[in-house]
C-alpha cells in the first residue's frame, strides 16, 4: 500500500512464511496462535528494530539472541499480582474450602510468566492457613521469564500497581507485608517462595507431568485458536485429579461442547470449573 | 453536513467502530440510544476504562438500545445488530474470520483497551467496509489506528474538536491527516440513525 513504510506491515502470506520457518528452524509451533495478535507482535519487532520483512526473516533464522527476543515479544509476558481481584475472592470463597480437605494440595500455574500469579496464589493459601501442605508449580514456554519468577524480585513501580489490586481482594494487611523492600525493588519473602517450583513446559508439545488439585491458566487461551484451546483442555483434564479445579481467564469460557460436559461451572463470571466425569 | 459520499460509505459498512476517552461517555450513550433498529451492522465501542472498577456501562447501554449488547469475550463471533464493548484491562483485536481475540500486552498510550489496537486490526479485516468515529479524549490514542483505517479505505469521522469535552483526541487524528470528515455532534448522530 502507498505511504506505509516497509517495516510497518506484514501480509498474511508473510506471516505464514515466518511461522513455518520458525517451526522448522527452532521447533516452536505458532501455527495455531491467533493471527491478529501474532502479527501485531511481529510488526512491533520490525518497528523497534527497523527491520524489513526480509531482514526479520534472516535474523530469526541466524541470530539466536534475536530469536530469544522474538520469543519474549510474542509470548506476551504481561502479568500482575492479583490480576482480577474478584477472581481471588472467588477462589477464597468457593475453591479453597474444598482444597483444604486434601492432605497435600498440588497446584499448577500454566503460563506463569514472571511468577506473579504463583506468588499471589501462595499468599492466598498462606492467609487461608493451608500454605504448608500445598505445592505450586509454575511453568512457562520461556526460560528467561522463569529466571525472573525464581528470583521473585519486582520493581516498586509494579508493586505499587499490584498493591492496588491486593486492596480489592479483601485479604488482610497490605501486599508489601509479604515483601522486603530495598531501594527500588521488592523481594518476596522466602516463606512465600517455599514449596514453589518453576520449570519449562510447552503447552503445545509437552504432556502430563503430575496430578493436580487445581490448574490455573489465565489469559493464555486468548492467544490460541479454538482447536488448540481444545487440545490443551484435554491436557488439563488429564492432569487434574477427579473433582480438581480449573481456572481460566475471566474472558476465556470453555466453549467446546465436549469439555462443557466434562467440566462443571463453579463460577461463571471468573471461569472457574471443576472436573467431572463425562 | 452529510453528503452523498458519507452516506454511500456508511451504507456499505459492515461494522461501525467508535473510539473515545474522557468526555466521550455522553456522545456514545446518545449514539447507542439512537442506532436504528434494523441497522444490520456490528458496532464495536472502545472506551478507555479503568481496571478493578465494576462499571455499569454495559447495563446502562443495554437498557437504552434497540440492539443486543455484549462485553467482548475471547473468540466471540462478530454478529450484526449487536453492540460490542471492549473489556477493561485487555486489548480487543479482530481476526480475519470475523471473531474477536483479546490480548493483555502492555498499554498503548497508557490505555488498555487501546483504540489504536482495535482500529488497526479492523483496518486489516474490514478495509473499506467500515466506518470509524473518534470522539472526545485527553490523549492521542486512536489517531494512528484511524490513519490505518483511512489508508485501507474505511470512512473515518472525527468529532468536531470545538464540540468535544476534551479536544486532544480528535485534534491528534486531524493533525495526522486521519480524518475524512470532521463532523458536528448533530451530523454524527444523524448519520448513526441512518
From TrEMBL, chain A:
| Molecular function per GO | S-adenosylmethionine-dependent methyltransferase activity
User: What protein name is recorded for this chain?
Assistant: Protein-glutamate O-methyltransferase CheR
User: A Pfam family matched by this chain, by name?
Assistant: CheR_N
Q: Which residues form the CheR-type methyltransferase domain?
A: 9-254
Q: Which SMART domains match?
A: MeTrc
Automatic annotation (TrEMBL), chain B:
Report a single Gene Ontology molecular function.
Answer: phosphorelay response regulator activity
The source's superkingdom equals: Bacteria
Q: Name one Pfam family in it.
A: CheB_methylest
Q: Which residues form the active site?
A: 21, 48, 141
Record carries keyword Transcription:
no
Signal peptide span: none
CDD domains registered for this protein in UniProt = CheB
Keywords carried by this UniProt record: Chemotaxis, Hydrolase
Q: Which GO terms describe its cellular component?
A: cytoplasm
Residue ranges constituting the CheB-type methylesterase domain according to the UniProt record: 9-194
Q: What is its EC number?
A: 3.1.1.61
User: A biological process (GO) annotation for this entry?
Assistant: chemotaxis
Enzyme class of the recorded protein, top EC level? hydrolase
Q: Which reaction does it catalyse?
A: [protein]-L-glutamate 5-O-methyl ester + H2O = L-glutamyl-[protein] + methanol + H(+)
Q: Supply the PANTHER family for this chain.
A: PROTEIN-GLUTAMATE METHYLESTERASE/PROTEIN-GLUTAMINE GLUTAMINASE, PROTEIN-GLUTAMATE METHYLESTERASE_PROTEIN-GLUTAMINE GLUTAMINASE
Can you say what this protein is called? Answer: protein-glutamate methylesterase
Amino acid at each position: 500500500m502507498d505511504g506505509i513504510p516497509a517495516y510497518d506491515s506484514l501480509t498474511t502470506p508473510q506471516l505464514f512464511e515466518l511461522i513455518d520457518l520458525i517451526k522448522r528452524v527452532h521447533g516452536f509451533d505458532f501455527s495455531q496462535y491467533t493471527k491478529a495478535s501474532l502479527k501485531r507482535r511481529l510488526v512491533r519487532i520490525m518497528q523497534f528494530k527497523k527491520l524489513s520483512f526480509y531482514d526479520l526473516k534472516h535474523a530469526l533464522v541466524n541470530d539466536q539472541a534475536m530469536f530469544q527476543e522474538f520469543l519474549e515479544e510474542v509470548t506476551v509476558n504481561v502479568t500482575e499480582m492479583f490480576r482480577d481481584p474478584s477472581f481471588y475472592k472467588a477462589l477464597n470463597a468457593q475453591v479453597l474450602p474444598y482444597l483444604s480437605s486434601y492432605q497435600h494440595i498440588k497446584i499448577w500455574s500454566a503460563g506463569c510468566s514472571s511468577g506473579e500469579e504463583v506468588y499471589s496464589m501462595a499468599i492466598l493459601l498462606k492467609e487461608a492457613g493451608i500454605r504448608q501442605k500445598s505445592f505450586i508449580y509454575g511453568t512457562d514456554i520461556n526460560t528467561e521469564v522463569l529466571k525472573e519468577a525464581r528470583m521473585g524480585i519486582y520493581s516498586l513501580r509494579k508493586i505499587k500497581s499490584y498493591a492496588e489490586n491486593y486492596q480489592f481482594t479483601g485479604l488482610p494487611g497490605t501486599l508489601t507485608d509479604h515483601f522486603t523492600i530495598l531501594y527500588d525493588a521488592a523481594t518476596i519473602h522466602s516463606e512465600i517462595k517455599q514449596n514453589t517450583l518453576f520449570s519449562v513446559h510447552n503447552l503445545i508439545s509437552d504432556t502430563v507431568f503430575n496430578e493436580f488439585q487445581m490448574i490455573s491458566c489465565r489469559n493464555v487461551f486468548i492467544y490460541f485458536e479454538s482447536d488448540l484451546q481444545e487440545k490443551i483442555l484435554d491436557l488439563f483434564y488429564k492432569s487434574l485429579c477427579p473433582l480438581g479445579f480449573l481456572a481460566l481467564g475471566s474472558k476465556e469460557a470453555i466453549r467446546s461442547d465436549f469439555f462443557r460436559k466434562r467440566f462443571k461451572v463453579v463460577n461463571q463470571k471468573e471461569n472457574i470449573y471443576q472436573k467431572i466425569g463425562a | 453536513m452529510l453528503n452523498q459520499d458519507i452516506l454511500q460509505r456508511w451504507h456499505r459498512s459492515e461494522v461501525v467502530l467508535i473510539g473515545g476517552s474522557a468526555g466521550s461517555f455522553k456522545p456514545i450513550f446518545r449514539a447507542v440510544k439512537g442506532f436504528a433498529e434494523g441497522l444490520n451492522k456490528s458496532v464495536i465501542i472502545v472506551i478507555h476504562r479503568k481496571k478493578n472498577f465494576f462499571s455499569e456501562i454495559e447495563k446502562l447501554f443495554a437498557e437504552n438500545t434497540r440492539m443486543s449488547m455484549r462485553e467482548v469475550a475471547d473468540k466471540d463471533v462478530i454478529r450484526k445488530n449487536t453492540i460490542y464493548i471492549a473489556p477493561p484491562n485487555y486489548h480487543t483485536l479482530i481476526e480475519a474470520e470475523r471473531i474477536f481475540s483479546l490480548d493483555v500486552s502492555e498499554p498503548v498510550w497508557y490505555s488498555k483497551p487501546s483504540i489504536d489496537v482495535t482500529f488497526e486490526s479492523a483496518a486489516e479485516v474490514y478495509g473499506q467496509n467500515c466506518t470509524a468515529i473518534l470522539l472526545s479524549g485527553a490523549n492521542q490514542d486512536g489517531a494512528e489506528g484511524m490513519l490505518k483505517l483511512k489508508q485501507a479505505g474505511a470512512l473515518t469521522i472525527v468529532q468536531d474538536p470545538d464540540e468535544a469535552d476534551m479536544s486532544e483526541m480528535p485534534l491528534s487524528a486531524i493533525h495526522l491527516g486521519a480524518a475524512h470528515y470532521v463532523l458536528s455532534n448533530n451530523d454524527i448522530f444523524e448519520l448513526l440513525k441512518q
